[in-house]
Amino acid sequence: MWRRGKGRQGSRSSSRLFATYAVVSLVPVATLGAVLLRGLQEEAARQGREQGRAQAAVITEMAIAPALDDADLTTGLTATQQTRLQDATGLAIYHGSVLRLRLRSFTGQVVFSDDGSTVGGVSVSDPAFRQASVGQTTVALVRDDAAGGRQIIRVLQPVVAVSGEALGVLELYLPYDAIAAGVRHQQLGTYRQLGAGLGALYVVLGLISWSTTRSLHRYAARQEHQALHDALTGLPNRVAFQDRARAALETADRDGARVAIVLVDLDRFKDVNDTLGHHAGDELLQVAATRLRSGLRRADTLARLGGDEFALILPGLDADQVRELLGGLRRELIREVVLDDVPLTIEASFGVAVYPEHGDGVEELLQRADTAMYQGKRGATDIVVYAGGGVSHSAQWLGVRAELRHALERDELVLHYQPKVRLADGEITAVEALVRWQHPQRGLLPPGEFLPAVERSGLIEPLTAWVLRRALADHAGWTATGQSWTVSVNVSARNLEAPGFAGFVAGLLAEHGTPAERLLLEVTETALAGDAETAASTIRALAGHGIRISVDDFGIGYTSMAQLRGLPISEIKIDRAFVQDVLDDPQSRAIVRSTITLAHGLGSRVTAEGVESSAVSAWLAEAGCDEAQGYFYSRPMPWPSVSLSRPHSTAGGSVR
């Protein structure tokens, strides 16, 4: 509807532009025609005057001058001269070739006229009469009041005797109608040609105008489309999405309705680009766009915001209806597609924010949808409706990422270590490296203040590399003091999916001279559940170098024991959510006991996290848990302080 409205508006604008151009172009064409017509009229008048001049000259020389015979007009004419003039001009007067004539002296006295009158005529003060008195013929078109105002030719012709003496002025009136009719007949063809030419010119200009207007309209439409649409998929882009979202919110506000803003992010799209090439990635985006669009209603909008991120505007739906619609989209989206002979499944995470429950403006709704989408990527469901709280939205992370990049360059990060205690005898067997940020303004920041932003970006790889280097350097330090602790370092799903990660870690071990078995890499359960095949391959490669692997936060994700059975896992860490409740919650006790039994059956050691009391520590020891860590034993601290601290006693003995 939005696009058709724009098309109609553009068509009306094009028609108005053409009409304006047609009217404006008619003005110069009409002006040109008027000028040419005026020129033709002036040419007709000129020809009439020239014919009148010639006719007057003939009459003067052939009739008037011979009849006067050197008469003196100041004293009047003799009867003989009067008779001769009457005879010489009577025939012309009779046939109408001369309308009137007067013979006048230089003083203006009428000495002869065709009708016998001796008064009237052009005033002696008239410039035309004075010019004729000095020998210049003047010709003009004038109105004949006696004949209803029609045009006639007036000639004032000097009269020169046969002897060459100037005698007077002949005032001659000649008919113009016959001359004008002849000129009009002669120029009628010219008028027709002129009209046809001007008409053809106007038509040609009109066609050029129409063609130019249409071309400009199509060009403007293409420019507008390119400015508001994604070139690869043809979908509206971020600018168009913002405009449509604002319009949808205004309509919803007026009608008291809801509008859902949905962000869709394709999972592991980077792997397709890196493995099959960007052409395959482009094809995958086009397939995803087609499948997403196929499940939408006419009123819905699908846009591509950039990269592998799409956005939806779903008016008139509440959260449950949005989930149902997105469920259908997801089922359509995950159908297998073959790219470069490789079968792939398109998976995506959907984050939903609903107006007005989750925000009043487009930007706020986008941020809430982004938060929900990110929670979906970290959790077990692909479609998440914003529920408040959770991970801070992406706009807040942008500054964190930029600052952290500089923090790495300025070496503002530090490592604190939390000991792992062997429950059987209370010995510290290992320490877990936990990164902190010594912010120049905000002080020492815990990982929760910045790691969520890093895990979503490419910054996780240089951060993990920094932690590994610093941890191995510290390991060399405490080894030199006689401590034999293993060091644990957390790695993310992006690390496991990065090509060559196992070889990189092995190279760091060789660089620092650290035995591979003294490094334990902790991987979250959700990381294993992502690209399971790639993660499993990387874990096997790490184990092949002798590096040990721990599954962190076990129990809160959705990795099954069957998945772990095929992997070389050295340790399983029970999440603190179960450990804290073992004394009060029978289900937590059952889960912990089952996990310990299953892990031992897989040949893995078990470490309990979040131990905060001696009673819990004693219960874990009795349940067969191998190791534990938590505030009951020690808070995270720099490694020299770990060697000086004295953790609490346990059921299995004193902890040193």
Structure report:
Helix 1 runs antiparallel to helix 4, helix 6 packs antiparallel against helix 7 and helix 7 crosses helix 8 (319-333). The chain folds into three domains: 2-182, Beta-Lactamase; 238-389, Reverse transcriptase/Diguanylate cyclase domain (Alpha-Beta Plaits), CATH 3.30.70.270; 399-644, EAL domain (TIM Barrel). With 656 residues, the chain is α/β, with parallel strands linked by helices. Strand 20 (605-608), helix 20 (614-623) and strand 21 form a beta-alpha-beta unit. The strands form four sheets. The protein has an eight-stranded mixed barrel, surrounded by five helices. Helices cover 51% and strands 20% of the residues. The two termini are 74 Å apart. The protein has 21 helices and 21 strands. The longest helix has 67 residues, at 2-68.
How much of the sequence is in beta strands? 15-25%
The CATH H-level homologous superfamily of the largest domain: EAL domain
* Amino-to-carboxy terminus distance: 74 Å
- Note the overall shape: rod-shaped
Q: Helical stretch count?
A: 21
Structural class category: alpha/beta
Largest β sheet strand count, sense and barrel closure: 8 strands, mixed, barrel
Strand order of the largest sheet: 13-14-16-17-18-19-20-21
Number of domain units: 3
Instruction: Give the mean pLDDT.
Output: 81
Helical content band: 40-55%
Total DSSP E strands: 21
The CATH architecture of the largest domain: Alpha-Beta Barrel
Broad CATH class of the largest domain: Alpha Beta
Spatial extent as radius of gyration: 54 Å
Low-confidence stretches: 1-7, 649-656
Enter the CATH topology name of the largest domain.
TIM Barrel
